[in-house]
Amino acid sequence: MNVTTEAGTATGGLSLYTILVYSENIAGVLNQITAVFTRRQVNIESLNVSASSTPGVHKYTITCYCTFEMVKMLKAQIEKRIDVLQARYFSDDDILFQETSLMKISTPAMLENAEVCRIVRMHGARIIEVNPTYSAVEKTGSTEDILSLYESLAKLGVVRQFARSGRICVTRGFREQLDDYLAEREKERQHGKD
To answer: Is 3 helix (H, G, I), strand (E, B) or coil?
Structure first.
């Protein structure tokens, strides 16, 4: 399996993995999942939790740098948690992913320097609010795209605040893999009743 980091190459023998974890919406599951990483001293790079396309199921999208052997172990340990339905790991080639960022920039500085608006347009970002004090810029894309925009604007000294979301992603398959797993589990349960 050829796994690359967001920058396109492995870093120090470690590769970037995205781990998707599915669980019922029960308090304390996030703590159980993060404890698996803490015990193995693996740093979570980003974490996003939201409802999934399966009713009553939450999806945890976690990114971390680790070895292939470590990501396999993390998956196995996460799946041992009683409230976890399924965990899977992916390289960037196996998923479609995006991040979102918001930046507040100085409106007076933006109006004084046409380069600011040119950079925003060049990076495909949107200005979503303008007032006399600040303007809000939104950019969705890869980590590299977002950081490139931030660094370009920061060099001009116009950035007042910056926030970046965790990764959100979907697999490249047609259906949610959890749905197939749950359907198979239900078949086994029904077969056990017969």
So the answer is: coil
- Stated pTM of the model: 0.77
In sequence order, what DSSP letters do the residues of 18-70 get, joined into one string?
EEEEEEES-TTHHHHHHHHHHHTT--EEEEEEEE-SSTTEEEEEEEEEE-HHH
Span 40-60, pLDDT tens digits: 999 999 999 988 888 888 899
Domain made up of 2-6+8-90: CATH architecture: 2-Layer Sandwich (3.30)
What class is the 97-164 domain? Answer: alpha beta
Which residues have CB under 8 Å from 77's CB, separation 6+?
36, 40
**3-state secondary structure at position 4:** coil
18 C-beta neighbours (distance < 10 Å), count: 22
Q: pLDDT digits over 139-186, tens only?
A: 999 999 999 999 999 999 999 999 999 888 888 876 666 766 666 766
Write the DSSP symbol of residue 181: H
